[in-house]
Amino acid sequence: MLAFILRRILQSLVVMLVVALVSFALFRYVGDPISTMMGQEATIADREALRERLGLNDPFIVQFFDFVSRAVQGDFGISYRLQQPVMELILSRLPATLELALVSGVLAFVFGVGFGVYTALNRRGWLSTTIMSVSLIGVSLPTFLIGVLLIWLFAVELQWLPSFGRGEVVDLGSWWSTGFLTPSGRASLILPAITLGLYQMTLIMRLVRAEMLEVLRTDYIKFARARGLSNRAIHFGHALKNTMVPVITITGLQLGAIIAFAIITETVFQWPGVGALFINSVRFVDVPVMAAYLMLIAVIFVVINLIVDLLYYAVDPRLRVERAGAGH
Amino acid sequence: MTGDKMKEPLLSVRDLVVEFPTRHGTLRALDQVSFDIGPGEVLGMVGESGAGKSLTGAAIIGLLEPPGRIAGGEIRLRGARIDNLSYEQMRRIRGRRIGMVFQDPLTSLNPLYTVAQQLIQTIRTHMDVSEADARKRAVALLDRVGIPAAARRIDDYPHHFSGGMRQRVVIALALAAEPELVIADEPTTALDVSVQAQIIDVLKEICAERGASVMLITHDMGVIAETADRVAVLYAGRVAEIGPVRDVIQHARHPYTAGLMGAIPTLEQTSDRLVQIPGAMPRLNSIPTGCAFNPRCAHVFDHCYRERPVLRQAAPQHEVACWLTEEGGA
Questions:
Q1: In-domain check, residue A316
Q2: What is the DSSP letter of A238?
Q3: B135 — contact with chain A (CB < 8 Å)?
Q4: Is residue B247 one of the residues assigned to a domain?
Q5: Per UniProt, which keywords does this protein have (chain A) (predicted)?
Q6: CB-based contact (8 Å) between A228 and chain B?
Q7: Structural domains counted in chain A
Q8: Which residue of A has its CA nearest to B100?
Q9: Which residues does chain A have within 8 Å of residue B126's beta carbon, measured at their own beta carbons?
Q10: Closest Cβ–Cβ partner in B102, B113, B177 for A222
């Protein structure tokens, strides 16, 4: 078990190093930061001085090593655009994105599993048919369109919910600001969370349904029925637990996707998160922020994958044995 | 049936018809199947693949796969009809009064639950006992079916056990709530030849101890010969012959049964080729009129094409559905 975790962490480090290389390459190949920073009137001498001062004339390897060693310490430099430390910028925006991702992830998981199980158990009911048809919309409509439609319906026409922003936030500790504690903060979360989570919900729902139907056909479910176990025990004990094994993987990866793809939702709802920060940075070729964002997303994916692997252990006893056997 | 001439049968199946509605018409998979199983009796049920053996078991325990359904006849357990019960009423019978053992022990057990969890859940579904008592019963059961160090191994997961051991666990599960009848659907087919006999012995012994009847579905005549008291031979969803094992094996009346017996190799046999019945069992949508076996029968005559033979007594307790017996005399 411990050996397995160590091995996975080592693999994760390799992945991170590759991502670091890609984000570092941004500095060299996405335009010339000097011209963005200095404007039209700067002299060539001034430009060269700045170039020298920022270390942009050093060899590639030296610059990369410098980049990685500072990144490890959480130093991604200064934003070209906002002239603030990148790490500070991202940390100040991160709570908004994480809270949004958490709420939509939980929504997607709870409703996805719930609807999936329901439609699998009542395959021919009219409600199942309706849910399945509506889910097609969730899969096929682009996120920004869903967001715009929701804003039009609930913010413009019905005026029930705010159309943009985070509402009132409360500071917790030195850097975490939360929207959970105020009514306007909670109301502001609803539309973006639905927009962001709808696709994931339909995906999870369809996956759960397909897996559940598969599991319900297995011999051990037949045998459980032949032993006279109650439907509840069969469906929610024996069948659902087996269904969850593949669902956990997909859900974990989707959580990463939710954080990464929050960009679109954050843009539509003017959500002050890292996604919006990233989009604005792209517009101004603010390479340090872009590079840091890339690294952040990579870290999140790597951590989620690690957690998913560990959850496998918790759910499936067969893995525990095989891995332990291989370890000795 | 006013069956007061003998002791009341535990299970009585009368004219059971199972149909599968399909787009191309209704397929009749079981056609007027009738048989009894007495208390403590082991009834063997043999036939080729697709003859309807497993379907008969599924119909009795009420677990026919849709769209299959019981379209006629009745099933009685100790005189009370069970073929028309609600799902919930039938659920209380499954496991408690009729247990079932499936073919493949590798897939019959839920991989994510320990043997203890599955046994205790089954016991507590049907019996009002505490968790601790259920566990004690579970350990005793495992011990009885021959799992070494049962008290320790009970907390293992199914994948910790070998195929033979898993089938013992399956038997323990099927018997956990002390059913009166156990339907064993090819319980040894998926197992290694060397453990088949052990599993059959365990099953037979425990059922004998508890006075449970067994319906043993198999295509292995050897198993039937050693285990069953009586045997029913199924062909194309119909009972061809039913009677005491010794009688049926030694004096098969139905040409199909005789063919089956001829296909078993013996030590004395010197011929190079195994005897086999020519042709194959008809598909369900093209069962011939008259006797279903008529295209393959060596003794076929005009009556066999005209009318379907019904089960008639050919010897004490020995019934055959064949016009030969009818016209040639026993």
A1: yes
A2: I
A3: no
A4: no
A5: Cell membrane, Membrane, Transmembrane, Transmembrane helix, Transport
A6: yes
A7: 1
A8: A226
A9: 228
A10: B102
Token representation of residue A191? 């539309």
Chain B touched by A35 (CB under 8 Å):
no
Q: Given CB atoms, is A123 within the 8 Å cutoff of chain B?
A: no
Alpha-carbon gap, residue B222 to B319, rounded angstroms: 21
Number of A to B CB contacts under 8 A, please give it: 81
**Looking at the DSSP assignment, which residues form a beta bridge with residue B46?**
B233
- Residue A316 touches chain B, beta carbons under 8 Å: yes
Q: How far is A240 from chain B (nearest CA, A)?
A: 11
Range of the domain at A267: 86-327
Assigned domain for B259 exists: yes
CA torsion angle for B259, B263, B265, B271 (degrees, to 10)? 90
With an 8 Å Cβ cutoff, are B94 and A228 in contact?
yes
Q: Is A241 on the interface with B (CB under 8 A)?
A: yes
Strand pairing report for B11-22 and B69-77: antiparallel
Asked if the structure places residue A78 within a domain, the reply is no
Buried b (16+ CB within 10 A) or exposed e, B214-243: bbbbbbbbebbbebbbbbbbbbbbbbbbbb
Asked if B117 has any chain A CB less than 8 Å from its own CB, the reply is no
Token pair listed for A248 = 């956990």
What is the residue range of B315's domain? 252-330
Interface contact A236, partner B, CB < 8 A: no
B76: Cα separation from own chain's centroid? 16
B5: its two tokens = 């001439």
- Show residues of chain B in contact with A316, CB under 8 Å: 111-112
Query: Could you give the CA distance from residue A85 to residue A76 in angstroms, rounded to a whole number?
Result: 7
Q: Is A181 a domain residue?
A: yes
The CATH code of the domain that includes A301 is 1.10.3720.10
87-106 in chain B: CB under 8 A from chain A: 91-96, 99-100, 102, 104
Q: SS3 of B1, please?
A: coil
Number of domains in chain B: 1
In tens digits, what is the pLDDT along chain A, a chain of 328 residues? Answer: 678 788 888 888 898 899 988 888 877 777 676 776 677 777 888 888 888 877 777 788 888 888 888 888 888 888 878 888 888 888 888 888 989 999 999 999 999 999 999 999 988 889 998 999 888 887 888 888 888 898 899 988 888 888 888 888 888 777 788 888 888 888 888 899 999 999 889 999 999 999 999 999 999 999 999 999 999 999 998 999 999 888 888 888 888 888 887 888 898 898 888 988 998 888 887 888 888 998 888 888 888 888 888 887 777 777 775 444 333 3
Q: Is residue A44 part of a domain?
A: no
Pick from A226, A242, A317: CB nearest B63: A226
Which residues, including other chains, have CB under 8 Å from residue B10's CB and lie 6 or more apart? B37, B38, B39, B41, B77, B78, B180, B181, B213
Contact by Cβ (8 Å): B299, B255: yes
Are B94 and A233 within 8 A, CB to CB?
no
